[in-house]
Amino acid sequence: MAYYVTGMIVKRPFSDVLDRLNVVGLRPTRQRMALARLLFDSGDRHVTAEQLHQQATHHGVKVSLATVYNTLNQFTASGLLREVAVDARRSYFDTNTDPHHHFFNQDTAELTDILGAAVAVSRLPDAPAGTVIDSVDVIIRVRAN
Amino acid sequence: MAYYVTGMIVKRPFSDVLDRLNVVGLRPTRQRMALARLLFDSGDRHVTAEQLHQQATHHGVKVSLATVYNTLNQFTASGLLREVAVDARRSYFDTNTDPHHHFFNQDTAELTDILGAAVAVSRLPDAPAGTVIDSVDVIIRVRAN
DNA sequence: GTGTTTGCAAAGTGTTTGCAATTTA
DNA sequence: TAAATTGCAAACACTTTGCAAACAC
């Protein structure tokens, strides 16, 4: 089975995507399967809901924007995706759920991973009284030079 | 001259706030002066536009929400404030413009400064080709324990 | 007086929700 | 067929904008 993802032919066992949905207990509907393929079948991705909806449309997948939002939120709640708040305008969804940090290009609005341990946060402070640390987000904002 | 700011009496030379506006070339209108006092006359603050507007209203300052937004944006563009993107919902404006990082309490939506060098980012990666680093934002998300 | 700033209401953006119709198990 | 999911349109929260009236210099 071969299908197009972002312009190149990718061979992937169908069960990959199906397994992901089964593991988190989401029914493998046509829409969820299609979105999961677009998200997970081509390496690490950073997309907004709008971008994923457009991509789905270009690939002939009929799905509403509301369902894209709902699906992204369900995937995030299930731990399949990670949400990255870059600015007050939009959220990005990252298929890489391992702890890592990001570059954000302020000119192109593009979000990219910072590889491995290229950044290290040393000397983490204690959380304020009565709280525990949930996550540490590092966003390095860059611009064209 | 004494006036109320967040519930306590604060004495501050009027010229403080006036100087700030003069330095960045913004006319000291009644609204801008009042908002600047609320922002800068009581230590480091983290406010949303909505919060500042409510505070102004409680202090008897008549100003529209649109003007609060415009003023916060002008102050940010002038370097008087720093904008912190915490989630896709709202922006915080921080009166502390020195490089520093933040705790964000996900339960209370409260943003607080991380003191001095309590956090250090070591080994900054190179920016992607063709770009330069503009700023490094570290947000440590915490929640009640 | 002239150019700037304000307030209002309307428009804009990104996201969520209510609900009937459809699909899945 | 019972429960979950979808699509649509409407609602939503936050923010920006157009423009006439008010203001600062």
What is the H level of CATH, i.e. the homologous superfamily of chain A? Winged helix-like DNA-binding domain superfamily/Winged helix DNA-binding domain
Q: What top-tier CATH class of chain A fits best?
A: Mainly Alpha
Question: What coarse outline of chain A follows from CA principal-axis ratios?
Answer: globular
Mean pLDDT of chain A: 87
State the helical fraction of chain A: 25-40%
Provide the number of structural domains of chain A: 1
Neighbour order of strands in the largest sheet of chain A: 3-5-4
Helical region count of chain A? Answer: 4
Low-confidence stretches of chain A: 1-14
CATH topology of chain A: Arc Repressor Mutant, subunit A
CATH-scheme architecture of chain A: Orthogonal Bundle
Secondary structure category of chain A: alpha+beta
Give the oligomeric state of the chains in this entry, treating copies of one chain as homo and distinct chains as hetero.
Answer: homodimer
Distance between the termini of chain A: 44 Å
* H and E order of chain A: EEHHEHHEEEEEE
Strand content of chain A: 25-35%
